[in-house]
Task: inverse folding
């Protein structure tokens, strides 16, 4: 595919490629620098960061900012909560999405059109924030883990991607399994799911990231502090903290290695680290997953 | 007549017997959509009721158009309505073309490793949480943050990006582009890989240079994808990234930053005025539905591409 561009090796073509590459490098740097800046300031001396001396590489290397944020016991409690919500939530997502996608992927499933229509309609119209909030309240799910994992059990976009992937499997596979006496559950778990591993791995990533990053549902549905996920703690420290200046004052210690901005950087790194670690390993899979989804269902 | 009724019933029973496991499988997902999507849809009736905690969604008393009339007569509602539309129109104008341009640029890169590297880095911000992004904005845009320091080198500023209302839209849109342009380009890249090779060869024989090939071959090749994406974006005209706005909002920029969803959140959740908030939410949903249906209709007429 790339060969087509090799043909035009005129001067104009070279200039075109050169400008294009230069602009892309610029875009990449602009995208990357903010993250890089957070990373280097999180391990730099607080005073020097405040004076604006840390811009390209860490200066006065120290882990004091990390030590300082980790003295907060609430951080580890919420870290644990986030892990639980993410693991349980993703497991529910995966099972529910497969259970939904498989029947809808079968051409012979009676009622398929009606059910598909009913589900697609929810992508364009919904009750909105308040009715959902009240439904959850009336179901007595308030301040429980179920309010966090059940209302988002299926993401319709992701489910459609899985359905498309199931649909692309050869029908003859299912037919021969049926002749061997396999029922639809066996076909789903023994044939359809194992053959869709790449797509499902992508879905695990999407679902897990969305659970890990979610703060709003926790804010709506959870009251007890000991149930808060990491993002709520992060929000309280990073955003609510800025508007009430005293928060940074009380947090200020006599340790000059630590300043408000190095603490902020450290806690951002702390919450984002799991994603940054997993990302390089999985990123080659998800592009494929997204493209399958875009093939239209 | 009873005969035909009987045969439909029989056909239905036969189908059910054949698909019984599929129905069993579909039961939980069906309940999920019923409880978490269709029950709230029924809950919209609250907009025409006086919600009381004791009687719940089903039992509260009907009050007709009381709450609808209330927000139509509320000048602040029209202020947040205008804020929503303006923010989204600007956002569409600035954000929509960026992933397309990025995809076109990436498509012209022949060096595979370089292309991979640009893609890897540009997708990354998509995976950051909205709290992290707003937290970073707060750090970078503060009066002694990196951006003001950089501008200070040229004798500009310091600007109060987060406090002054006039900067709010720029901050919101620019950070949105930073976070999602790379990710948004994936769909266009996959459309680009489907453009037929012969078309390029024909264009080259006609003496088209690479810029002209891009304009006359590549761009028309991905036009259907662009149309579909545009319909989807238009349908989202009422759905701003309201979680981000909620985090970016301060009392000083509220005149501009307050949108319908944040207003609904304040009235409904914080003030517990459920019926009024549901009414405003309903208005928002209906306008959004009208937008997406109209956009779909127009694109079907003009360009033969549509969502449904």
Result:
């Amino acid at each position: 595919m790339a060969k087509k561009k090799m043909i035009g090796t005129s001067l104009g073509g070279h200039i075109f490629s050169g400008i294009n590459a230069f602009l892309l490098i610029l875009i990449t740097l602009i995208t990357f620098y903010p993250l890089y800046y957070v990373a280097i300031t999180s391990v730099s001396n607080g005073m020097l960061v405040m004076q604006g001396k840390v811009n390209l590489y860490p200066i006065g290397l120290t882990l004091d900012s990390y030590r300082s944020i980790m003295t907060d016991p609430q951080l580890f409690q919420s870290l644990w909560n986030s892990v639980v919500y993410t693991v349980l939530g993703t497991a529910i997502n995966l099972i529910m999405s497969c259970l939904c996608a498989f029947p809808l992927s079968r051409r012979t499933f009676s009622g398929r059109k009606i059910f598909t229509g009913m589900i697609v309609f929810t992508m364009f119209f919904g009750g909105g924030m308040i009715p959902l909030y009240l439904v959850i309240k009336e179901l007595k799910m308030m301040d429980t883990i179920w309010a966090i994992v059940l209302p988002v059990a299926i993401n319709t976009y992701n489910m459609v991607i899985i359905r498309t992937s199931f649909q692309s499997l050869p029908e003859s596979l299912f037919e021969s399994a049926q002749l061997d006496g396999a029922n639809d559950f066996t076909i789903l778990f023994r044939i359809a799911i194992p053959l869709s591993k790449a797509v499902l791995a992508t879905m695990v990533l999407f679902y897990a990231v969305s659970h890990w990053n979610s703060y709003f549902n926790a804010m709506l549905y959870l009251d007890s502090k000991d149930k808060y996920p990491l993002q709520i703690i992060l929000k309280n420290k990073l955003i609510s903290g800025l508007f009430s200046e005293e928060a940074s004052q009380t947090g200020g210690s006599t340790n000059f290695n630590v300043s408000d901005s190095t603490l902020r950087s450290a806690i951002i790194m702390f919450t984002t680290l799991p994603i940054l670690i997993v990302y390089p390993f999985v990123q080659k899979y998800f592009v494929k997953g997204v493209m399958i989804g875009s093939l239209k269902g | 007549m009873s005969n035909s009724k009987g045969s439909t019933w029989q056909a239905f029973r036969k189908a059910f017997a054949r698909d019984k496991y599929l129905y069993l499988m579909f039961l939980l997902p069906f309940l999920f959509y019923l409880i978490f999507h269709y029950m709230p849809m029924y809950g919209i009736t609250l907009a025409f009721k006086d919600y009381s905690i004791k009687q719940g969604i089903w039992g509260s008393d009907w009050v007709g158009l009381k709450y609808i009339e209330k927000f139509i007569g509320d000048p602040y509602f029209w202020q947040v309505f205008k804020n929503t539309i303006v923010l989204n129109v600007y956002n569409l104008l600035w954000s929509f073309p960026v992933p397309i341009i990025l995809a076109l640029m990436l498509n012209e890169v022949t060096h595979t490793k370089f292309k991979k590297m640009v893609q890897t880095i540009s997708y990354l911000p998509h995976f950051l949480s909205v709290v992290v992004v707003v937290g970073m904005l707060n750090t970078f845009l503060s009066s002694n943050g990196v951006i003001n320091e950089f501008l200070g080198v040229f004798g500009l500023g310091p600007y109060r990006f987060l406090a002054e209302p006039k900067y709010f839209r720029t901050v919101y849109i620019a950070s949105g582009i930073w976070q999602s342009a790379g990710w948004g380009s994936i769909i266009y890249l996959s459309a680009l890989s489907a453009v037929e090779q012969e078309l390029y060869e024909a264009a080259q024989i006609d003496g088209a240079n690479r810029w002209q090939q891009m304009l006359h071959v590549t761009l028309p090749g991905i036009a259907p994808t662009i149309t579909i994406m545009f319909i989807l974006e238009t349908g989202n005209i009422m759905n701003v990234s309201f979680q981000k706005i909620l985090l970016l909002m301060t009392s000083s920029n509220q005149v501009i930053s307050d949108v319908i969803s944040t207003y609904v959140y304040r009235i409904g959740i914080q003030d517990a005025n459920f019926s009024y908030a549901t009414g405003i939410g309903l208005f928002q949903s209906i306008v959004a539905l009208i937008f997406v249906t109209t956009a779909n209709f127009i694109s079907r007429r003009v360009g033969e591409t549509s969502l449904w």
Chain B has two domains: 2-62, 72-303. Chain B touches chain A through 99 residues (CB under 8 Å). Chain B has 17 helices and two strands.
